[in-house]
Amino acid sequence: MNEHDSDEAVCAQALGGDQNFDAGAAYARFRSRAARRNRRLPFAIGGLVAAAAIAVLAIFVPLGSIAHDFLTIFQPKQFAAVDVSGYASGKKHLNVFPNLSEFGAMHDVLEGKTLHPASAAAASKVVGFRLVGPASAPPGMSASPQYRTMARSVESFTFSAARAAASSAKAGKSLLAMPAGLDGTTVTAALGPVAVTTWSGKERRLVLMQGIAPVVRSSGATLAELEGYLLSLPSITPELADQIRAIGDPSTTLPVPIMAVKQSSHPVDVDGAKGLAIGDNTGLGAGVVWERDGKIYAVFGSLSEDQVMSVATSLR
Amino acid sequence: MTVLTALTGSEAMTFEEFFLLEYNRVANVALRILGDRAAAEDVAQEAFASFARRGGAIGENSRGWLCTAAAHGALNELRTRRRRSLRERAVVRLSDRSPVPDPFETVAREEARAVVRDAMRCLPERSSSLLALRYAGLTYREIAVALRVDEAQVGTLLARAQSAFRTELDHERAR
What is the pLDDT of residues A267-293, one digit of tens each? Predict the structure, then answer.
């Protein structure tokens, strides 16, 4: 190297050329550290499990008032993972949530108020059922969890073929015509009340969600008609539609969106109840959701799946 | 599986596959700044941990994000270190040893790395990061996204960084 060499040549000599690292050993170390060290809750896990019920209901089953002539069309008793990875890939900028205002009108019937009770007893009083919890605080976490409650919320949505046609014309695209049986149908759903208990430790968090299972009712259209129409909307990819159609009993199965590129899921048994476990592929977090006696429970946090299951099965 | 297939969504890539594919590159970004394998591996580990804490979704800009995180992590590490003595620099790291270690060669190599490291440390942070990313093989476009600059500017910024690095390198060698 001499003074006549270009700056680029000098840099290439000093900085060029990679050394080899043992990526396999590094990954083993990464997993080991992740399992050993306390980590902040990966919100992707928490968000997906906790918001699954609300999010999926927002897509497929808008909420509403409960009238006597309404038929119950959906009440989750089991869970099935659906992969929504396609919505996050670099080439697709689709939104899984259709714009409901394009084909009907939504109304808040009852807005769920959020409170922060000071104790489990106070939270139980607010939600109207006795909160369950583990016998002791999860390892490494504060013995004084925080409580949050959301009162029962009810919303309704009325389908309008005229509005759907107008939206379709405005956007210059042709949507599947709304079936006659759907036009004018009002779908309602009631969600909650729900209680959320959060334990915190150093860079670690565990959340327990428990609430009355959502109930969805329809004034006319069947679930099959609703599903057929909603799954035909452009915001739903064919892959997602196929997964939802493949669900055996759609009237009792809540689809839980997961990102299969970074999460895995499998059915689990929680003290006899059918549940779904979701794990972060990095090993940094896990969650489980299940239904028992008309209530939905979810436990998720920056713990291993074994630890999360241990908490789930210890709730009394 | 390639990053391309993962990025186009035609085939899903797991976090583990992504880690194994990109670890060497990320560790080398840190190594260029730190000149120290063990410290570079620590920085790479932390970069992947940060990536995982952000959700670990693998996308078009993930590689650039990771390499930038490694560059910043390495620069932070440099700042927190005190200048080491010649003796400390010559400490032989087991992982760097050739099959038949020659102590004189080892010391010379450590010295050369220390000079490069000190030159990198004297540069503005953006210039150090730019050089580390470029010599780790990132494209101008990836660098532009990672450092949030216009892609058309990358060539000019790189030339300036190379010139500044050479000046600092000459300065360090003359010490």
Answer: 999 999 989 998 876 666 788 889 999
Asked if A26 and B44 come within 8 Å (Cβ–Cβ), the reply is yes
Smallest CA-to-CA distance from A240 within A141, A95, A112 is with: A95
Longest dimension (CA), chain B: 54
> Which residues in A lie closer than 8 A to residue B58 (C-beta atoms)?
261-262
Question: Phi first, then psi: what are they for A5, rounded to 5°?
Answer: -65, 150
For residue A283, the tally of other CB atoms under 10 A from its CB is 19
CB B6 within 8 A of CB B19: no
Convert A95-148 into a string of H (helix), E (strand) and C (coil).
Answer: CCCCCHHHCEEEEEEECCCEECCCCHHHHHHHHCCCCCCCCCCCCCECCCCEEE
**Considering only CB atoms, which chain A residues are within 8 Å of B32?**
15
Closest CB from A23, A24, A85 relative to B12: A85
Give the integer Cα–Cα distance in Å for A288 and A303.
11
A241 CA: distance to closest CA in chain B (Å): 17
What letter represents residue A2's amino acid?
N
Rounded CA-CA distance A286/B61 in Å is: 26
Which H or E run contains B76?
A: helix B62-80
Burial of A106 (0-12, 13-18, 19+ CB in 10 A): middle
Q: Which of A1, A4, A19 to probe the B interface (max B CBs under 10 A)?
A: A19
Chain B residue with the nearest C-alpha to that of A42? B53
Q: State the complex-level ipTM.
A: 0.73
C-beta atoms of A44 and B57 within 8 A: yes
Q: Could you tell me how far CA B75 lies from the centroid of its own chain?
A: 9
Q: Does B50 touch chain A (CB under 8 A)?
A: no
B166: which chain A residues are within 8 Å (Cβ-Cβ)? 7, 10-11
What is the C-alpha to C-alpha distance for residues B128 and B75, in angstroms, rounded to an integer?
Answer: 8
Task: Measure the CA–CA gap between A18 and A296, rounded to whole angstroms.
Answer: 52
pLDDT digits (tens, 9 = 90+) for B99-127: 344 445 545 666 677 778 788 888 888 88
Q: Which amino acid is at A112?
A: G
For residue B157, what pLDDT band results from cuts at 50, 70 and 90?
very high
pTM of the complete model: 0.54
